[in-house]
Amino acid sequence: MITYQHAEVRGLKIFYREAGKRGAPTIVLLHGFPTSSFMFRNLIPLLAETNHVIAPDYPGFGFSDAPSVKDFEYTFDNVASVMEEFLFRKLGLDKFSIYVQDYGAPIGYRIATSNPKAIDKIVVQNGNAYVVGIGGAFDPMKPFWANRNAETEAPVRGMLTLDTTKFQYTHGAKDPSKISPDTYTFDQALLDRPGNNDIQLNLLHNYQSNPPKYEGWHEFLRTHQPPMLIVWGKNDPFFTVEGAKAYLKDVPKAELHLLDTGHFALEEELDFIAEKMNRFLA
Q1: 3-state SS of 38-96?
Q2: What is the pLDDT of residue 18?
């Protein structure tokens, strides 16, 4: 059974889904953009028989508090810091595995490099940590990163529309009829909340802070050699297959599976990923 809870961190309510027995090995599921812990709704029950599962929503996402950009600094450093406090201080975790997807990668790797002894294993699902993994779908953001103004911001605002949210789920899908419209409809409803455009634009602009940290993340991987399972939708226009394969240079024993699907691989490959994860985590 999944429970739906909140913890208070720095005056913010952080929503999280929890399942499984406390005392069992813990895996923390870190979601991507533009979704929330909702993306793990079907995976959690498949992991919970033998694992303690935690799936939080970041500030500004899902059912967590979304303070305005005037009241909260929406950067990956700050969001990771809040999630670090949530995991270690509020939940009292001291050892856990992480599943990183999309935004979950820069958040998860910040937590991992600051707390290397706390990380047991890593599952990567279209979570990039290499320059070669940044796909052409990021091209509209590059002028925005170089000089943020109304003109360069305009195409990036297009990433916050229903068409783009639906594209993220359906592009590259082997069978689009298996992609539930609940996914992009729910995500878009939360994206469309008043003030949320400003939140997401700040994070999209700050995404450029991640590549300069890649080498530090690679050093963490090379030094600690965490057991790693990589399950990657190979048709993802945002994070490419080259980014998946690049992990093997730093963690040669990582287990890699390239799947014939897109960015949100769980929507088509749930059973395969859950089976691989349960075996890997055991």
Answers
A1: HHHCCHHHHHCCCCEEEEECCCCCCCCCCCCCCCCCCCHHHHHHHHHHHHHHHCCCCCE
A2: 98
SS3 for 8? strand
Could you say which residues of the chain have pLDDT below 50? none
Write b or e for each residue in 46-80: b if 16 or more Cβ atoms lie within 10 A of its Cβ, otherwise e: bbbeebbbbbbbbbbbbbbbbbebeebebebeebb
Q: Right CATH number for 3-281 from 1.20.120.80, 3.40.50.1820, 2.40.128.130, 3.30.1330.40?
A: 3.40.50.1820
What DSSP letter does each residue of 219-280 carry, written as one string?
A: HHHHHH---EEEEEETT-SSB-HHHHHHHHHH-TT-EEEEESS-S-THHHHHHHHHHHHHHH
pLDDT of residue 225: 98
Q: Residue-wise over 162-188: b if at least 16 C-beta within 10 A, else e?
A: eebbbbbbbbbbeeeeebeeebbebbb
61's torsion region: left (phi>0), alpha (psi -120 to 50) or beta?
Answer: beta
Q: What are the domain boundaries of the chain? A: 3-281
The whole-number pLDDT of residue 89 equals: 97
- Prediction pTM value: 0.97
* Cβ neighbour number for residue 159 with a 10 Å cutoff: 22
Would you please indicate which residues are annotated as catalytic (active-site) residues?
263
Nearest partner of 232 among 210, 277, 264, judged by Cα: 264
